[in-house]
Amino acid sequence: MLDLRQLRALRAVAEHGSVLRAAAALQWSQPTVTHHLRGLTRLLNAEMVTSDSNGTRLTPAGAAMLPHAIAILNRSDRALEEVAAMVASGRRRIAVGVFPSAGARLLPRVVRALNDAGFVPDVMEAELDPLLAAVVSLRVDAAIVYDSPGRRAILPPDFRVIPVRRERLSIIAPSAHRLAERDGVRLADLAEERWVGGAAASDPVDATLSRAAAAAGFEPLIANRSDDYAVVAAYVAADFGVALVPELALPAHLDGLATIDVHDSTFERRIFLVTAPSVDPGARAALEDSLRAGAEDD
Questions:
Q1: Among 81, 88, 117, 133, which is least packed, fewest CB within 10 Å?
Q2: pLDDT of amino acid 152
Q3: SS3 category, 92
Q4: pLDDT along the chain (298 residues), means of 10
Q5: Residues near 152 by beta carbon (within 8 Å), at least 6 away in sequence
Q6: Residue 280 and residue 47: Cα distance in Å, rounded?
Q7: How far apart are CA 61 and CA 219, in angstroms?
């Protein structure tokens, strides 16, 4: 039978590179660490670690076991914390992840819905890849994510992926821009423009723009970059360039800004709610209903 102490020993050796240092970190004796590693070896019929003059490292089997060990230990620690908190408060905690540009617009409604359903929300903000990793490892119970072409997420069985809304991506420009509020604009009409991009070329919105621009026969000229859409909007208002911005990240007041509608390109992405199998049905319903209601109101 799997023992949490076996998993703690494996994680400690992976982190510290020797049985001796792992024992010190765990405040166990060295023979105790070795005993639990051997128990895991017998259970899996494969050596978990190998040692030489440079220390102790995981074998391929140990490395394959490590992410599962970390997920189980994280979940075990969470279970103890959450049940203790529920006993004290009478309310169950639920951890929810969200990508940054959606936080301001989606979170208030989500938090209210969870509170009304009797849950205590614990919010984590992160980009797409860390969010998916967090929900797969059960560090969060649910995550609000978006689709990203070319980055297919593989989730374990029984995880639910629920489409909740579509988000439009808008081209913003200074209010005095020559194409602002004009009809019949083609994306190719923006071929000579400077653009304000995300933090890196790998940014999903930048990748969407690059694909559409390539189809229109040009490559966007990136003049400035920022990972903060408020800063992107400020750059655009200062006439540093135009930008493609997600609807949820648009400033509430477009002072000094205008949108450019292009008739030959559709920019949008789908937003999903991903939930772990352990999520309470009442919490899942509150999350799903609040996100869909927000889409109808926007």
A1: 88
A2: 65
A3: strand
A4: 94 94 95 95 94 90 94 87 76 90 87 93 90 88 83 79 90 92 89 92 87 93 92 93 91 81 85 91 93 74
A5: none
A6: 38
A7: 46
Options 1.10.10.10, 3.40.50.720, 3.50.50.60, 3.40.50.300; CATH for 4-73 is 1.10.10.10
What whole-number distance in Å separates Cα of residue 93 and Cα of residue 114? 10
AA identity, residue 236: V
Cα distance from N-terminal residue to C-terminal residue, the chain = 52
pLDDT at 298: 60
Contacts of 283 (CB under 8 A, 6+ apart): 92, 94, 114, 117, 119, 141, 142
CA 153 to CA 31: how far, in whole Å?
Answer: 41
**Closest by Cα among 116, 113, 155 to 294:** 113
- Alpha-carbon span 33 to 24, nearest angstrom: 10
Task: Note the pLDDT of residue 150.
Answer: 58
Distance CA 199, CA 225 (A): 5
Q: Where in the chain is the domain with CATH 1.10.10.10?
A: 4-73
The third-level CATH classification (topology) of the domain covering 74-166+270-297 is: D-Maltodextrin-Binding Protein; domain 2 (3.40.190)
Burial class (CB in 10 A: 0-12, 13-18, 19+), 31: exposed
CATH assignment of 167-267?
A: 3.40.190.10
What is the Cα–Cα distance from 189 to 207, expressed in whole angstroms? 19
Amino acid identity for residue 117 in this structure: A
CB atoms under 10 Å from CB of 257, counted, come to: 22
